[in-house]
Specification:
With 563 residues, the chain is an alpha/beta fold. The protein is built from 17 helices and 24 strands. The protein has 2 domains: 27-398 and 544-562, Glycosidases (TIM Barrel, Alpha-Beta Barrel), CATH 3.20.20.80; 404-529, Trefoil (Acidic Fibroblast Growth Factor, subunit A) (Trefoil). α10 (216-233) links the parallel β6 (200-204) and β7 (238-242). The longest helix has 21 residues, at 286-306. The chain binds 2-acetamido-2-deoxy-beta-D-glucopyranose (NAG) (4 copies).
């Protein structure tokens, strides 16, 4: 890594953009379609949406962060962190109320008393300052397009401001700020505005329906209207629909499907945070909590995958300081689910800090991938961890590799690797994973070899005699994420990871009741894969940490040129 870094600095000084060569080449033939549960491109090849949410729906109605960094720098950071898409939020009134949409960026900030942000925009994005806020929104979409970033336009709320509560009058059709006809007008306006903008690949029609007015009759009535309106104004975009109760519930669709005039363009979005279930993760046994919450989520929304619809997890995320136990346990569980189902997703959030959120100027976003200055990565270990989820494991048209298994370790985002026959099995990039198979006899096989338990605290082995109990691996515990086997004296052991990331077997931990322990290191998922994928993302992610230094070099170079 060190060598690479100095080469990087050297090339940066020469003004060579090394990120360009590191990025995955994004060859997506737009527009996108759906093919059963998958999102595919114009050639029928799977496109996995690995998005990050970029808020632009708060009081200013301006994409956050533009006072901290030039829009093009932010777009490039998004790509270099491995995301291929942005869920870009907008408030309805931006599109329906000209006295809001047509005020300039400067006026918007002035009316909120955000003079410091104005100075920041003057420095970082001077050309935006006197544009109407609706045009500033278009400029950001355009810049994302220039950087090969796909965009989901997300109608997040009606009245600009932080979202969401049951009492904010923006929750459901008929609420004070949620007139269904005005909503359809706004959707139509945005769909029309971006008809022909090829990187706008989808529109999510309304974020997190909620509150006392919720009912399924109105859901069908207005969601169908909204979907048809968007589709006729812009037949290229995917239409993404939210469920009830903060986008957690689609249970009603199990018995009564939607009735739309178009096909191949409909997807659903689900939201799932740790705090969706209060403090359940912290206060319960992680295996039991993971098991029961996942089965709930499958019953309320995940079942749509089996019915042949894409389900995009458009909000999830954690406090990246790593100190929130509730979030940390949830993360290990959700990573397992996201890998197993190979979900499309959008992380909350890109934001390092907000211009103004809930009355606080410059509020830090602990769930944001960028730091307060929108300069470096808040926590690069988090980006490395989720990088395996940024590329598809399976889906139509990806490669000719045979269907096989990889053994994914959610706590690290890595997979079990065989380095050589002489070295212990270890964790490494899923991109380098061997092609495992998992038989009906519960054996985990590589060609001519099987995974074996050798003893408590000892490395798991690859052997050739595969009919003993120590070659049988059963997914146990309520989470079904412990892989357990029996050693020769009959003791049950579980696959685990030691401090050097070697694969060992230990006593199975936290199987029941215990709320204090964290089974994360023993959680694995056997995941279907058809890809032998090449990924440079991890390398890029590590380098990104130094992007602030990169800015300093840029400043130094300008000085140098002047001399
Ligand atoms: C448009 O927004 C302005 C400013 O918030 C507000 O005073 C006005 O009532 C809104 N107009 C409509 C038609 O909602
Ligand atoms: C959207 O753009 C397409 C061309 O991409 C055009 O054929 C169609 O008429 C446009 N639709 C509307 C409603 O403007
Ligand atoms: C679906 O909608 C069409 C009109 O768009 C209508 O003719 C048809 O009866 C509806 N089907 C169902 C099952 O409601
Ligand atoms: C990043 O996350 C890890 C793991 O959750 C945590 O241990 C670490 O302290 C975090 N680093 C920072 C800078 O917040």
């Amino acid at each position: 890594m060190k060598n690479h870094l100095s080469i990087f600095i050297f090339l940066s000084i020469l003004g060579i953009n090394i990120f360009g060569s590191l990025q995955r080449s994004v060859v997506v033939a737009l527009p996108l379609y759906t093919s059963s549960r998958w999102i595919v491109d114009d050639e029928g090849k799977r496109v996995k949406l690995a998005c990050v949410n970029w808020p632009s729906h708060l009081e200013t109605m301006v994409a956050e962060g533009l006072s901290k960094q030039p829009v093009d720098v932010i777009s490039k950071k998004i790509i270099s962190m491995g995301f291929n898409c942005v869920r870009f939020t907008w408030p309805l009134f931006l599109a329906t109320n000209d006295s809001l949409g047509l005020i300039t960026v400067k006026q918007s900030f002035q009316s909120l008393g955000l003079s410091e942000s104005i100075s920041g925009i003057k420095v970082n994005n001077p050309s935006l300052l006197d544009l109407p806020v609706i045009q500033a929104y278009q400029v950001v979409v355009k810049n994302l397009g220039d950087n090969n970033v796909m965009v989901i336009l997300d109608n997040h709320i009606s009245k600009p401001g932080w979202c969401c509560s049951n009492y904010d009058d923006n929750g459901f059709f008929g609420d004070k700020y949620f007139d269904p006809n005005l909503w359809i007008k706004g959707l139509t306006r945005m769909a029309t505005m971006f008809n022909g903008t090829s990187n706008v690949v989808a529109m999510s029609l309304r974020n997190e329906l909620r509150g006392s007015k919720q009912n399924t009759n109105d859901w069908y009535r207005y969601m169908q209207k909204g979907a048809e309106a968007v589709h006729s104004a812009n037949p290229n975009v995917l239409v993404i629909l939210s469920g009830l109760n903060y986008d957690k519930d689609f249970g009603f669709l199990a018995t009564k499907p939607l009735n739309l005039t178009f096909t191949g363009k409909l997807a659903f979005e689900l939201h799932w945070y740790a705090f969706s279930d209060g403090k359940a993760w912290e206060n319960g046994n992680a295996n039991q909590v993971c098991g029961s919450i996942v089965s709930n989520i499958m019953r309320r929304g995940g079942f749509l995958l089996d019915q042949g619809w894409p389900v995009i997890m458009t909000e999830w995320g954690i406090d990246q300081r790593g100190t929130n136990v509730n979030d940390n346990r949830y993360l290990n569980c959700i990573m397992g689910v996201a890998a197993e189902l190979d979900l499309d997703w959008a992380l909350w959030t890109l934001t390092g800090s907000y211009y103004l959120r809930e009355g606080v100027m410059g509020m830090d976003e602990t769930y944001g991938v960028l730091d307060w200055n929108w300069c470096g990565i808040r926590n690069s270990s988090f980006i490395e961890k989720i990088s395996a989820l940024q590329t598809p494991f399976q889906g139509p048209g990806l490669s000719n590799a045979k269907l096989h298994k990889v053994i994914f370790h959610p706590a690290t985002g890595l997979c079990i690797l065989k380095k050589s026959l002489l070295e212990p099995l270890t964790l490494g990039s899923c991109a380098d994973s061997d092609a495992w198979s998992y038989t009906e006899q519960q054996q985990l096989l590589l060609p001519y070899l099987c995974l074996q338990a050798d003893g408590l605290g000892k490395p798991a082995k690859l052997g050739i005699i595969c009919n003993n109990n120590n070659s049988k691996w059963e997914a146990i515990s309520d989470s079904k994420m412990h892989l357990s086997s029996k050693i020769s004296n009959g003791t049950t052991v579980c696959l685990d990871v030691d401090s050097s990331n070697n694969i060992i077997t230990n006593s199975c931990s936290c199987l029941k009741l215990d709320r204090t322990c964290d089974p994360g290191s023993q959680w694995f998922k056997i995941v279907n894969s058809t890809t032998i994928f090449q990924s440079n993302i991890q390398v890029a992610a590590v380098w990104m940490t130094n992007s602030c230094m990169d800015d300093k070099i840029a400043i130094w170079m300008t000085k140098f040129k002047k001399q």
